[in-house]
Amino acid sequence: MARNRQSPSGADPGVATALDRVLIAGAYRGGSRREQTELELDELEELARTLRTAIVERAAVPLPEIHPGTFFGSGTVDALGARIEELGGPAVLVNDQLSPRQQRNLQERWGVPVLDRTEVILSIFARRARTAEGRVQVEMAQLEHQLPRLAGGWAHLERQRGRVGAGGMRGGMGEKQIEVDRRLINQKLRRLRQRLKEIQRQRTTRRTARTAVPLASCALVGYTNAGKSTLLNRLTNSNVLADDLLFATLDPTSRLLNVASGRRIIVTDTVGFIQSLPHELVEAFAATLEEVREAHMLTIVVDAFHPDAEAQLETVLATLDDMGCDQPAVLAVNKVDRLDHADAAEVACRLGQIAGLSPVLISAAKGTGMRELRSAIDELAAEAVPDTRANRPIIAAGSFDGAAPGLEDAVLDETRRAAS
After folding, report:
1. Buried-most residue among 20, 111, 335, 366 (CB within 10 A)?
2. Domain segments of the chain as ranges
3. Crossing angle of helices 117-128/132-146, nearest 10°?
């Protein structure tokens, strides 16, 4: 008798968004890599916490070489399987990217849902995307991730039967169910791409009226949970969501910053970067990446208290380089209130050397260093748009989705004042 229909990954439908209890597993090669793997597992725990998931246990296991069928070696698979059974069958989050075959085999061996790092991040994005464009891009990313995982979902079914022809003779074998699924997913992807084009065209039309606004623009960039949203609130006296969770902010949010010189600057909060970002999600970053690329300047925010702050900064710098961002930047070394003065100065010095920038020590939560940071942003703004009345005014060609009511009106008022 045929089994019940499974989702393409082999897990029950909805498992990616209904994980109550999980075991987290990661692998390391050589003793020197274990410390780094533990830091990555810390990050995966934070990702799981963002999904409101209870973590029952974590395991860092040695991996001499990747097994093509199960990722982990057979001994590790058996040991983890026994532990999963003892714990009552929690789902498993693996800190690496699994191939469809590896994921399918692990689920069959352990009898529980298995998600890799990519699917965890996709689940978070699916929950937290707010704008129409963000939701469409995330759905596209999920479908593209799902396509190569269809093979195992229908392995238990034969081809569909052909139609009965004239004289009672049956026609040839029909489509495989997997082929039907692929066709349906590809059709939906085409519809979503068309919808995305429409949304982007509408956004381009909306921003035409503000491409001549005489304001400099600054994008807040940095690793996820570095404190960018808290900093936006502190700089601009706003009240945007600033939760202690990874990817608390997905959609770009803009606010006006008034500085001592009288200049007004548009500051945009953006989605945080992360190591090993799933390639399926690169397009889902499109709106935010556009904000970053088009900004006159950047404020790079780093969590000085994080034990892996240097590696996080290197990830951010590498991502900016890949995006072709070469704007002037300010390095904001955040959360210094959690360190004593000497340690904060030492960390800031190392981070400044990595970035090639003079660091500004701040605490967005406490308000420390805000005057110095505003001054640094103001200086860069003066260079980016030195005389807003004499020069052709420009602004970041980005969306004001999620911005406070009245922000766009305030920007347009600025245009009229500059023209008068």
Report:
1. 335
2. 15-125, 210-419
3. 150
Do domains 15-125 and 210-419 share one topology? The answer is: yes
State the amino acid at position 109 in one-letter form. R
Confidence of residue 285 (pLDDT cuts 50, 70, 90): low
Cβ contact 400:407 at 8 Å: yes
Domain 15-125 has CATH 3.40.50.261: no
Q: How far is it, in rounded angstroms, from Cα 155 to Cα 105?
A: 13
Helices 309-322, 341-355: axis angle to 10 degrees equals: 30
How far, in Å, CA of 243 to CA of 411, rounded?
28
SS3 51: coil
Please identify which residue in the block is written with the tokens 């039309």: 205
Q: What share of the chain is helix, strand, coil (3-state, %, to 5)?
A: 45, 15, 35
Cβ-count burial of 64 within 10 angstroms (0-12 exposed, 13-18 middle, 19+ buried)? exposed
Q: How confident is the model at residue 400 (pLDDT cuts 50, 70, 90)?
A: very low
Residue with tokens 């990519």: 118
Q: Report residue 186: phi and psi, to 5°.
A: -65, -35
Alpha-carbon separation of residue 192 from 3, 188, 308, 313 (angstroms): 32, 6, 38, 34
In 3D space, the residue among 239, 254, 315 whose CA is nearest the CA of residue 43 turns out to be 315
Which residue bears the tokens 């004001």?
400
Q: Enumerate the H helices of 356-386 as residue ranges.
A: 370-384
Q: What 3-state DSSP class applies to 395?
A: coil
Rounded-to-integer distance, Cα 395 and Cα 383, Å: 14
- The per-residue pLDDT for range 66-103, each reduced to its tens digit, is 999 999 999 999 999 999 999 999 999 999 889 989 99
Written as six digits, the tokens of 163 are: 């139609």
Q: Are 348 and 359 in contact (CB under 8 A)?
A: yes
Q: Are 150 and 134 in contact (CB under 8 A)?
A: no
CATH number of 210-419: 3.40.50.300
CA 78 to chain CA centroid, nearest Å: 33
